[in-house]
Amino acid sequence: MTTEEGGPIRILLVDDDELDRMAVRRALKAADLNAELVETEDVDSAWTALGEASIDLIFLDYNLGTGTGLDLLRMLSSRGWRTPVVALTGQGDRRTAVAVLKAGAHEYLDKADLSPQLLRAVVPSVLRAARAQTEEATAMERLRLAAATADIGTWDYYPDTGELVMSDRARALLGVLPDAELDYALFLSLVHASDRDAVKAALNPDGTGARSSDFQVDFRVGHGPPVGTRWLSAKGREVARAASGVAASPHVVGALVDVTERKNAERAAGERAEIVESLQRFGEALTSSIAHDDIIQLATTEARRLLGADVGFYVARPPGGGPGRGAIAAAGISLDEVAALGPNVRELPFSGADDPVARIGGGAFFGVPVVSATRGILGGLVFGSRAGTFDARAVRLARGIAGWAAVAIENARLLSAEKEARDQAEAAVRARDDTLAVVTHDLRNPLNTVLVTSALYLKGGIPQEEVPQQMEVIKRAGRHMQRLINDLLDTARIESGTLAVEPEEADPVPLLEEVAELFANRVGQKRIALVVDRDAPAGLRVRADRGRIVQALGNLVANAVKFTEPGGEVRLALEPAESTVSFVVADSGTGVPDAELPHIFKRFWQGRPGDRAGAGLGLGIVKGIAEAHGGDVGVSTDVGKGSRFWFSVPRAAPSAAAAAGDGDAGSGRRAGEGA
Fold this sequence. Notes:
Elements: E1 9-14, H1 18-31, E2 35-40, H2 43-52, E3 57-61, H3 69-78, E4 85-89, H4 94-102, E5 107-110, H5 116-144, E6 152-158, E7 163-166, H6 168-174, H7 184-190, H8 196-203, E8 215-222, E9 229-243, E10 246-258, H9 260-286, H10 292-307, E11 311-316, E12 326-331, H11 335-341, H12 343-346, E13 358-360, E14 363-372, E15 376-385, H13 392-458, H14 467-496, E16 504-506, H15 508-518, H16 520-526, E17 529-532, E18 541-544, H17 546-562, E19 569-576, E20 580-587, H18 618-628, E21 633-638, E22 642-652, H19 656-661, E23 669-670
Parallel strand pairs: 1-2, 1-3, 3-4, 4-5, 17-19
Antiparallel strand pairs: 6-7, 6-10, 8-9, 9-10, 11-12, 11-15, 13-14, 14-15, 16-18, 17-23, 18-22, 19-20, 20-22, 21-22
Helix pairs in contact: 1-5, 4-9, 9-13, 10-13, 13-14, 14-18, 15-17, 17-18
């Protein structure tokens, strides 16, 4: 594209953001518009550039370093400059767009929508509209100077007689042949019915043609195809005409000009401003909801209403792309009816076609994607008209609606995530407080035992023969406090990621037996069978910290014994895999309710309210130990029948000697039985 003189289009880009200027440069280059770009960052340098070079078009950002785009628009207006301006706005600047259009900008573009295709359409359109406005202003000046040109028709009207005399150009603008009869009544019949009263009031305000000032009136006239309806502007002034021997009678002279392009530009600007204001109201309504499904249904319903569409529906997009999942919200149509339309209609938002409007099954359909700035395409809105079609304005409005919907959906997601995180944090605080209460309680009892017993001993209140027994009581109390403190320290290390393990190659079967021996007395007192399954492949080895494995197994066994009734069974076993070995503790206890399974390995979690038999640290420590080895944990359960807990560690390649030495492993034994 070139200017009227045949040279390149000289474009002044005013934007203080280098990235945005780079985006405009790339889009202009890709649009192949034969443009020369002059770049400035603020109002002052832009004004200097305008004085130094002839500029055909201005791309103007609103927020600038030392002022705003409105400042430059006011400067242009005050000096009578008519250089066309395209305002560049960011997402969310809808009110700003309305302001710059009202201040004299010819067009506005959302930076997020900037593309070579859009520039190829907008730049020529704006230049044409600007030229039309300049031509109209020039024509008006010529009319005031009574200079006739080929583009202006002249007319004379004599109210007394109804005589109307028009030049050939004026007749052509009205669609009347040069030699056809024409009077005031016939002229009025050519004027659009909606504009007729305004024309009569302008030409003949009191029925005599008398007036005290100049006038101007715009009206429409109907032409046959392909011209269609045209907008004309008539400007007139009353002059006196002397008749022979009589007083002067009214005489109105004027000029007629075609202002169709100006009117179309004004209508387009009005529609754009209306779109912006509609989107603003729509966005405010949409962002007032925080429920995902409510937002989608509201967006679908309101978008259909604003577009005047017969039907509208929203198609969800699976994460990572691929075909849409199907409609999840609809207006003017049921979800079953949407499914019957077929995949071609549902995939319209994701087709990427230059012309989004498609004729399908006798109706017009188009779709726009709903795109999140952080998560990509979330879904798409589809609209249909059974008999009509959709113009570019409808598509632009739908894209604006989709943008607002994406923002609202993201806001709802973030609010939901924030609420979930807050709820989890509050739950963690409550669990911590409960645990601290349990720990305090559990420490207080053995501490009291130590204090009371030692005080009695120092006062000589313990018989000499009972001293060894009471010292053993103090020793057990100290060990209990030590276990609680160690658990708290391990929990802190796990949370900070500093839990240390010292892996070494080890036979896992003796680790099972060691833990069984530790719990032999406890299970015996509760009359629970503790079975060690020694059935393992020959030479099976693990790379693990022996002390930490015994600690983790001990926590699982303690948990199993706690929830297993007398007469039940706890079984320890190994489950080798290709690269890991799982230590398994299964019991015949009460099982774990499904609602507790997602939380069971969380720190401070106690699944049974009011149960103060533990601090809720054991299973969290098991998980931390397993993960420190690069392994995992898990649980399966059958409420009322028992649970099966496991954790895995890396499997070591067995040596030949180890394989030979382990070849006589038995199948299983109970705690306390010989090997």
